[in-house]
Write a structure and sequence with these properties.
Elements: H1 79-90, E1 99-103, H2 109-117, E2 126-129, H3 133-142, H4 144-148, E3 152-153, H5 163-166, E4 172-178, H6 183-200, E5 206-212, H7 218-225, E6 228-233, E7 240-248, E8 258-266, E9 269-277, H8 289-303, E10 311-315, H9 321-329, E11 334-339, H10 342-354, E12 362-366, E13 378-383, E14 388-389, E15 392-393, H11 396-408, E16 409-420, H12 426-432, E17 436-441, E18 445-451
Parallel strand pairs: 1-2, 1-4, 2-3, 4-5, 10-11, 10-13, 11-12, 13-16
Antiparallel strand pairs: 5-7, 6-7, 8-9, 14-15, 16-18, 17-18
The structure holds S-adenosylmethionine.
S-adenosylmethionine binds next to helix 9, strand 11 and helix 11.
């Protein structure tokens, strides 16, 4: 392991993707747009949106480092990362003059290790892909020299790059990853790796994916076994273990979006909205019950003339249910669906397309906490935030999103927010945004609105 860099990642490095200048006059500039061309299996066209940027086509935005802060540091690998690294070495040829692919490295430890493995092979490159906009940006800040020399490739630009497109130019035979949290996420990953094997001609492509034993099930082996010829588990290390899946089978097709639907009131009329889920997106293609409760109350307020919005945002758009509602219920408004997660961005595009709700003023952005929207510019923000990090409740996830809503709302603009009824968020919302009204409540969920002071 590299000897340097031993303290934890400063929060400032969890920086947004490509921030817009705050004074930007245009809320939704054209090049913010990502497209349904990013849906797996649907290649980008020259005529439509430009092909997604890669480290080749777009230089990464400068990292948001402050010279007054200590240099960014990569933490020691945790137990799961250590089992991934040990298993990678045991699979052999880890350090051959080959490229390596790293997936979902949230700390930099796996990428750092991969760089170390290829250090003796000047032509080898590490391709580190992350679905999270914030985490991709953080890696750019951690490894500026390696990115500048081309030793390390990261997704760059403002649209998420599908993994199989990003890694299509690699010469990799080994993929280091954390196991996705959900089975659909793992299925999606396996399908994309099979696509990479086809595109790069690497029939020996091997995935080493680690996780905590308590979160691992036999179903994960079965999901991988449907794509790879050889699947086995590593020896355990403490409470972690890795699955090693080698040699993707021929004829595996690109993962297809999941299909679902939600019936909601749009300006008082019941309407079915088609939903699309991609990879590990929250809820797959199913509507979230909290979002449905929020929409019921919001539609009553819009229909009753209690609320008007010309600029509306769905913060954390997931499968796009709330974005699609806004596009349908506010046909003259500018609407933004925004998510940190590449799968969510692709799913939101797909949901809008499935409902014929795409129009110039309806945009979808890959962004962390609305960093590319100007301050005090938005009339209405909808938020169904994450409350869990993995399986643990993490209340801090909400605070940053409430702060983002507070920043972009104009005075008198409204936040509509849904949370689990057993959690207490009213004081938090009131302190960060302004006076709060409870709009709906059932056993599971509570919907609040807050007026920006
Ligand atoms: C609970 S899901 C809600 C999804 C969707 N709005 C719905 O109602 O089904 C929360 C979403 O917020 C996204 N998210 C989490 N942190 C974010 C951030 N800092 N910026 C943007 N999106 C974020 C997640 O990726 C996830 O898709």
């Amino acid at each position: 392991m590299p000897a340097a860099l031993r303290y934890s990642l400063p929060a400032v490095l969890i920086a947004p993707c490509s921030p817009l200048p705050r004074e930007h006059p245009d809320l939704f500039p054209k090049d913010d747009v990502t497209s349904s061309e990013n849906i797996p299996g649907t290649p980008a066209t020259d005529a439509g949106n430009p092909a997604p940027a890669t480290a080749d086509s777009a230089p990464p935005a400068p990292a948001t480092t402050d010279p007054a802060l200590p240099a960014p540091v990569i933490p020691e690998p945790d137990q799961t990362e250590r089992v991934i690294l040990r298993s990678a070495e045991e699979t052999g040829e880890a350090g051959c003059p080959c490229d390596l692919i790293v997936i979902e490295d949230s700390t930099g430890a796996l990428t750092s290790f991969a760089l170390d493995l290829v250090a003796d092979h000047p032509s080898a490159t590490v391709w580190s892909w992350n679905a999270s906009c914030a985490e991709s940006r953080a890696l750019t800040g951690l490894f500026p020299e390696q990115v500048a020399t081309g030793r390390l490739r990261l997704p760059a630009g403002e649209a998420p790059v599908p993994l199989e497109e990003f890694a299509a130019g690699s010469e990799a035979h080994l993929v280091l990853a954390r196991l996705p949290k959900s089975l659909p996420g793992l299925e999606d990953l396996a399908g994309r790796l099979a696509q990479i094997a086809v595109r790069t001609g690497r029939e020996d492509l091997t995935l080493v994916a680690g996780g905590r034993v308590k979160h691992m099930t036999r179903s994960q082996n079965e999901v991988l076994g449907a794509v790879f010829r050889d699947v086995r588990a590593s020896r355990g290390l403490g409470k972690s273990r890795a699955l090693i899946a080698a040699a993707p089978q021929a004829g595996i097709t690109a993962p297809e979006p999941m299909h679902g639907a939600a019936t909601v009131s749009v300006r008082g009329d019941r309407r079915e909205l088609a939903l699309r889920g991609i990879g590990g997106v929250f809820g797959g293609a199913r509507p979230d019950a909290g979002s449905l409760l929020l929409l019921e109350a919001l539609d009553a307020a819009l229909t009753g003339g209690e609320l008007e919005a010309h600029q509306a945002v769905d913060l954390g758009s997931g499968n796009g249910l709330l974005t699609a509602y806004l596009a349908a219920a506010l046909p003259d408004a500018a609407v933004v669906g925004s998510d940190d997660d590449a799968d969510a961005v692709a799913a939101t595009h797909a949901t809008l397309a499935a409902n014929a709700l795409e129009r110039e003023e309806v945009r979808v952005t890959w962004d962390a906490s609305l960093s590319r929207l100007p301050d005090h510019s938005i009339d209405l923000v909808l938020l169904n935030p994450p409350f869990h990090d993995g399986t643990a409740v993490d209340a801090t996830l909400v605070q940053g999103l409430l702060d983002a809503a507070a920043r972009v709302l104009r005075p008198e603009g409204q936040l509509w927010f849904v949370h689990n009824s057993h959690l207490r968020y009213r004081p938090e919302v009131e302190r960060r945004i302004g006076p709060v009204t409870q709009r709906a409540r059932d056993r599971r969920f509570t919907v609040l609105s807050a007026r920006r002071r």
